[in-house]
Design a protein that fits this description.
single chain
């Protein structure tokens, strides 16, 4: 499996986070929709979820909100933390907050929890693959980072600490808090953490090849 270690240039890449053009709509919306759907599949497996979704589950339980609303609320609070870090949002940042939360919410309502362990495993593996494809499409639009990614890069610049350690610290922190609040942590959480990088890298590589063939 070949992986891409960079975000390729695409015909739909924006020149600035707010320089939207119609050709960017499909990669942006489809990418974020797939991301939210993949998150929903992980949740519906009942074998765990991504760290931030575990956190959202805990918040949803105590605040009596749907998972989607809890996710949107967390993203909005994270955006407030951008202000002292001097991070600048883009159109993609706003779309990230709205679309992922909505699709995640609808997926958990519409997709039934499988009773078979085989189907649950398919949900977990499929969820990671779908999130990888969605991430690759969204990242190539150049319309601004998602709320969590912006927090990571902002803390990286402010503290001069590697993004690897910043992201790891954020993920571990929200996972632990989410677990304490009642979020579901399981094998899907561990599988996501250990494979999502490969899924995104493989998706970016495939997308880069497609773009080159059409050039």
């Amino acid at each position: 499996m070949k992986l891409s270690h960079r975000i390729p240039l695409t015909p739909w890449r924006a020149r600035s986070p707010w320089a939207f053009r119609p050709r960017m709509a499909a990669p942006l919306v489809i990418g974020l929709t797939l991301f939210g759907f993949g998150e929903g599949l992980l949740v519906q497996s009942h074998w765990g979820a991504t760290p931030w979704t575990v956190f959202a589950q805990g918040i949803a339980h105590h605040a009596h909100l749907s998972l989607g609303w809890a996710t949107a609320l967390i993203s909005a609070v994270v955006l407030l933390a951008w202000w002292p870090l001097r991070e600048r949002p883009g159109l993609g940042t706003v779309a990230n907050l709205v679309i992922i939360a909505y699709v995640l919410d609808r997926t958990t309502y519409v997709v039934a929890v499988p009773h078979s362990s085989v189907l649950k495993a398919i949900f977990v593996v499929g969820g990671v693959l779908v999130i990888g494809v969605g991430s690759s499409l969204y990242l190539t639009t150049g319309l601004g980072p998602g709320p969590r990614d912006g927090l990571m890069t902002g803390l990286h610049r402010r503290w001069h600490v590697s993004v690897v350690y910043v992201r790891l610290s954020l993920e571990v922190t929200v996972l632990f808090i989410g677990w304490l609040l009642g979020g579901t942590v399981g094998i899907a959480t561990a599988f996501f953490a250990s494979t999502i990088g490969f899924s995104i890298g493989a998706s970016l590589h495939a997308l880069e090849r497609i773009v080159r063939r059409r050039a």
